[in-house]
Amino acid sequence: MCGVGLEFFSHYDRIRRLFSARVALGLFGCFGSERCAVGATCVVGLQWGDEAKGKIVDILTEKHDIVVRYQGGANAGHTVVFDGKKYKLSLIPSGIFRPNVQCVVAGGVVLNPQNFIQEMDGLIAQGIDCQNLLISTRAHIIMPWHFEEDRLMNRTTSGENIGTTMRGIGPCYRDKVGRSWAIRLGDLYREEFPQRVKMICETKNRLLFGMDPEGGENRLDAEKITADYLLYADRLRPMATDTTAYLLDALDSGKKILCEGAQGALLDIDHGTFPYVTSSNSSGVGVCSGAGLPAKSIEKLVGIIKAYTTRVGGGPFPTEQDNEIGQLIRDEGNEYGTVTRRPRRCGWFDAVAARYTARLSGATCLSVMLLDVLSKLPEIQICTEYELNGERTSHFPAHVDDLRLVKPHYITLPGWLEDITKAQSWDDLPTNAQNYVRKIGEIIGVPVEIVSVGPDRKQTIFVK
Ligand code: GDP
Ligand code: IMO
Ligand code: MG
User: Fold this and answer.
1) Which residues neighbour ligand 3 (ion) by CB within 5 Å?
2) By the 8 A CB rule, do 137 and 225 touch?
3) pLDDT digits over 432-453, tens only?
4) How far is CA 148 from the centre of its chain?
5) What φ, ψ does residue 443 adopt, rounded to 5°?
6) Minimum-distance ligand to the CA of 55?
7) Nearest CA among 150, 393, 27, 77 for reference residue 92
8) Is the CB of residue 169 below 6 angstroms from any atom belonging to ligand 2?
9) Contact 165, 314 (CB under 8 A)
10) Closest Cα partner for 426 from 413, 416, 435, 415?
11) 3-class SS of residue 40
């Protein structure tokens, strides 16, 4: 069935050939130059994460030379299923299963070296050799104090729980932006590293004691931390490099790059449901800064959406179904966090939110995931508009307090009430399932090119 996937790329290749022809004819100023970049494809979640990005990245990897994780960290949990095996990835790109593809962890990622090494060893134990990995020396490192800070500061200014994954993500990005206490992978190889750790530990010990005296005054042991991190650094040395230069050279030489987003656009630090967000740009706008790629190099952006909506952690969720419908979706979709096993909150597809994030991210096509999960519902709803202060609107509010107030307006579509997990092509899908997918593409205004009907690589339909 994966052969059908070639059609997706024959379209992509046609565009590339068209561009190449134009380069030859000198039709584009930019494309006329020798150094002109061939484009990158990006896979970005358009909801609150867990849209099954890992599955699509793994499939699209087949047609790429390089796969890049560019933001987030071990808060991500991406799942890939093939040949009867299920793999869970957190920091390692989902392209790792194809040894001829180079996997890159770029500078926008916050790296927990211990998690990375454990993940790599786990894969090696399962026969995946992991020889095809590079990590940016610019990637900021998650240090022990970041976990403590995540535990102590997992709240908004109004005191509500953000519900972070407790992986130290926010505190590490905070230190990156603050600059004074930041450590990057490249720093682990420098002579002054032990001195830096000592200096930071002194300050952080005071800070942590101030926030939580019960934890003691000297809870961070600089010598032990230095020794541990030097061991991690040794292990990572063969992979550590300037990935920004590597990717720019790859673009120049016409390599096909696939960028793998983590989280989802509604969790974007700047454009998501702040403060109930993650600490990186997890929408399409984060690809360039995270990977170190020029904006003009982004040629295709695959927006990944579930056929319904889920969210883990705190924050408003207008279409949430905290009832038997939500429970049915949770049971059918096994909606429990890949990283934390927390039950995910479930609800109807929110087209107001998805249209916003598709536009924000510049989605050129959509991939509708987990369609099979809805197969037991006689009727399915799609939220097409919000009502805010008595007025109907298709605008996604910028402030969470407004998002809390919106009343979703739905259209109702008939369900299909049959098993679709064995569907091999668009024509195999029941008419009502086709209509549901079509409707989503129509409302968002972006074509649906992929439909997923089960977790396995093979349960994927490429729409003509
Ligand atoms: P990611 O973080 O976006 O990569 O997504 P996760 O891996 O956290 O969550 C997606 C879950 O859905 C995983 O358990 C996948 O194996 C599973 N999955 C992916 N596609 C489908 C599908 O089409 N149907 C069903 N039932 N499960 C799917
Ligand atoms: P993938 O890549 C779903 C959520 C957390 C919390 C908020 C902030 O698997 O889609 P953080 O630890 O990042 O500071 O937590 O973001 N969150 C995710 N939700 N999928 C993810 O990643 C997530 N990564 C973070 O639940 O609400
Ligand atoms: Mg996930």
Assistant:
1) 50, 77, 338
2) no
3) 999 999 999 999 999 999 999 9
4) 24
5) -65, -40
6) 1
7) 77
8) yes
9) no
10) 435
11) strand
